[in-house]
């Protein structure tokens, strides 16, 4: 039956997660299906990643800036500046990044079907019959293995009966044709009038600047907040190159695989709950999914039980930091502006800033213990949740 299938693996979504699965599942006959005609647009990303992401993807050519520090603006007006001598993050051109990964997948042998949208699937003997819609109408592909790399609104995950993410943050970002004087620090703004339930950012990218924010569920649309931030930052008159809205899925569902199906990247909410960054986690999980795909195909067993080695491996690897991030997010979301200001006051001292300067954007929970050691009164913001977090951190 397998030999009669159109391919050994069909990947829905030509974003970073989908391309990574395809390029790492060497030897598997793969088709990538992408609804847009070209890869990498529209861009719904700030492109701020730890240098390890650029290295992992060998994507040096997509770097447009390097960030070494942060300026945090608290609701009451306090600004906390944390410089460092290290490259803390790179700013990438996300379109070029996606194109590069996609080219690699094609170079590794994947066939690309752009302009086709996944619409549904049916179970057949030995696998799935996948229904697509393209310029010429309906089209079907048969495969024993379907990868849902189709972003936060994943139709594949829904059709496979996987639960949605636990929370959605709505994001918006404008790219401006303006050069900031300080090219080394990202500005982060906190507060319910700025970005309720999340944060806002102003990111220098050479001759351009990305200004954006996220708003958690139940707080309306983000566009009014963006307008206010641009005004506050004196950037409302700057020429706008683009404006994009997108969603950030927070909190992975209990299951990310089913019989003949694995969900990766935003489709599985593999995103850092505190920052909304999804590239490192999605791409790491995608590599694990590729390994599982090859092993399960070789063994001829694509049942959920067989694919659950993917589930176990990504949760044991990056999933722990995601769960710790969920706990810190719980503390953060529970903080009023008054409490945020109190925390800002406590952190505004040299020893605390020295600890903050050691932070790694991919592992924010690692700051919890040294920060509490330096400023023990921080525990008062949520003794129970912070206690749980520290106990979990100890178990690594
Ligand atoms: C405003 C904002 C800022 C962000 N900033 C950062 C950041 O600075 N750093 C960071 O690491 N992360 C950031 N993220 C998150 C990051 O963009 C995502 O985690 C990442 O894009 C996930 O990659 P993916 O491949 O899983 O999904 P996506 O990049 O969303 O790719 C999914 C692909 O699937 C395609 N698709 C969807 N449905 C279908 C269908 N039915 N049929 C066929 N194709 C389909 C889409 O067109 C898309 O190409 C940000 C997100 C937002 C919204």
**Strands of the biggest beta sheet: in what spatial order?**
6-5-14-15-16-13-17
CATH class of the largest domain: Alpha Beta
Question: Approximately how much beta-strand content do the residues carry?
Answer: 25-35%
Overall radius of gyration: 22 Å
Bound molecules: flavin-adenine dinucleotide
The total beta strand count reads: 19
In CATH terms, the superfamily of the largest domain is FAD/NAD(P)-binding domain
Distance separating the two termini: 44 Å
Low-confidence spans: pLDDT under 50, at least 5 residues? none
Describe it:
By secondary structure, the chain is α/β, with parallel strands linked by helices. The chain has three domains: 2-42 and 95-164 and 254-326, FAD/NAD(P)-binding domain, CATH 3.50.50; 48-92 and 167-250, D-Amino Acid Oxidase, subunit A, domain 2 (D-Amino Acid Oxidase, Chain A, domain 2, 2-Layer Sandwich), CATH 3.30.9; 327-394, no CATH class. Helix content is 33%, strand content 26%. It has helices at residues 16-24, 51-56, 94-107, 155-159, 223-232, 279-299, 304-333, 337-347, 350-356, 368-374, 383-394, and strands at 9-12, 30-34, 48-49, 63-67, 69-73, 79-82, 89-92, 111-114, 117-124, 127-134, 137-143, 146-148, 167-176, 185-189, 200-205, 208-215, 240-250, 257-258, 261-263. The strands form four sheets. A seven-stranded mixed β-sheet has the order 6-5-14-15-16-13-17. Strands 8-2-1-12-19-18 form a six-stranded mixed β-sheet. Strands 3-7-4 form a three-stranded antiparallel β-sheet. Strand 9 (117-124) and strand 10 (127-134) form a beta hairpin. Helix 7 (304-333) packs across helix 11. It is globular. The N and C termini lie far apart (44 Å). The mean pLDDT is 95.
């Amino acid at each position: 039956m397998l030999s009669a299938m159109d391919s050994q693996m069909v990947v829905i979504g030509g974003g970073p997660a989908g391309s990574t699965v395809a390029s790492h599942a060497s030897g598997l006959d793969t088709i990538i299906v992408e609804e847009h005609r070209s890869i990498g647009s529209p861009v719904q990303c700030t492109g701020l990643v730890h240098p390890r992401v650029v290295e992992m993807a060998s994507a040096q050519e997509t770097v447009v800036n390097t960030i070494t520090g942060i300026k945090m603006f608290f609701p009451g007006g306090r600004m906390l500046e944390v410089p460092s001598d290290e490259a803390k993050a790179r700013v990438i051109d996300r379109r070029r990044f996606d194109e590069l990964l996609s080219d690699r997948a094609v170079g590794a042998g994947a066939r690309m079907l752009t302009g086709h949208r996944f619409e549904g699937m049916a179970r057949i003997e030995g696998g799935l019959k996948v229904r697509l819609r393209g310029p010429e109408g309906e089209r079907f592909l048969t495969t024993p293995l379907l990868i849902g790399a189709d972003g936060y609104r994943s139709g594949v995950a829904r059709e496979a009966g996987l639960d949605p993410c636990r929370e959605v943050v709505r994001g918006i970002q404008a790219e401006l044709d303006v050069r900031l004087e300080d090219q080394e620090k990202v500005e982060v703004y906190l507060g319910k009038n700025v970005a309720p339930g999340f944060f806002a950012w102003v990111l220098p990218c050479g001759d351009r600047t990305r200004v954006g924010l996220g708003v958690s569920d139940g707080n309306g649309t983000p566009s009014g907040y963006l307008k206010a931030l641009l005004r506050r930052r004196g950037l409302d008159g700057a020429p706008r190159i683009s404006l994009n809205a997108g969603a950030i899925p927070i909190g992975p569902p209990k299951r990310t695989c089913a019989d003949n199906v694995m969900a990766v990247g935003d489709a599985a909410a593999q995103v850092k709950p505190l920052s909304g960054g999804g590239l490192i986690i999605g791409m790491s999980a995608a590599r694990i999914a590729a390994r599982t795909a090859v092993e399960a195909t070789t063994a001829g067993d694509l049942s959920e039980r067989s694919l659950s080695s993917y589930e176990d491996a990504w949760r044991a690897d990056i999933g722990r930091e995601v769960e710790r991030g969920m706990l810190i997010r719980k503390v953060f979301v529970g903080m009023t502006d008054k409490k945020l200001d109190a925390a800002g006051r406590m952190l505004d001292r040299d020893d605390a800033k020295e600890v903050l300067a050691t932070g790694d954007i991919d592992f924010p929970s690692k700051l919890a213990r040294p920060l509490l050691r330096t400023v023990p009164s921080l525990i008062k913001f949520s003794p129970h949740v912070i206690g749980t977090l520290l106990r979990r951190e100890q178990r690594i």
